[in-house]
Amino acid sequence: MAFTRLKPRQEQFLWLVIEGVPQQTAYSQVYGNANENSCAASASKLLTVPKVIARRNELIAAKVARQPITADFLTRELMAIAGEARALGQGSAAVQAMMGAAKLQGLIVDKVQSDVLVRKPSASPESPDDMSPEQWLGEYTTTIEHMPTEKGSDLEPEPEGSGTVQE
């Protein structure tokens, strides 16, 4: 398989960028320019050249092919991202990366699907599958009778709906 050929400095710059060095710093190291604004502009411009884009994609694909993606690898990457975000004062991004790691490890579950057989109108296996509301009330309810208190008694009157239970 043929690969895109670049000038040695361009190749070196791309290797640094692929390894995680900020593009401005990588450009400064390779080309020896100390002016930050100039390095940032030149690095950005270099990364838009079609041959450089093609070679960058090739290098990224090669790096990905070498690195097996496992749960441990992803957890380490997410925790590294959380650390970087925290160092930059990006609390929300840090929390999101930590939550991603927690989900990956199974500590947090987004949604749970529970398949449950619900028997209506009762959970009892002996109950019939279909009942009219009157049958259900007759079978599963108890009658509550209100007992009025005597006028002038020490007891507080019972609220409506309370009383003794008849069975």
Contiguous low-pLDDT stretches (5 residues minimum) are none
The biggest sheet amounts to: 2 strands, antiparallel
SSE order, one letter for each helix or strand:
HHHHHHHEE
Cα separation of the termini: 87 Å
- How many strands in all? 2
Strand order of the largest sheet: 1-2
The proportion of residues in beta strands is under 5%
Number of domains: 3
Class from helix and strand fractions: mainly alpha
Fraction of helical residues: 40-55%
Can you walk through the features of this model?
The chain contains seven helices and two strands, in the order αααααααββ. By secondary structure, the protein is mainly alpha-helical. The chain folds into three domains: 1-67; 68-109; 118-167, no CATH class. It has a two-stranded antiparallel sheet with strand order 1-2. It has helices spanning 8-18, 23-31, 36-46, 50-66, 71-87, 91-104, 133-140, and strands spanning 143-145, 164-166.
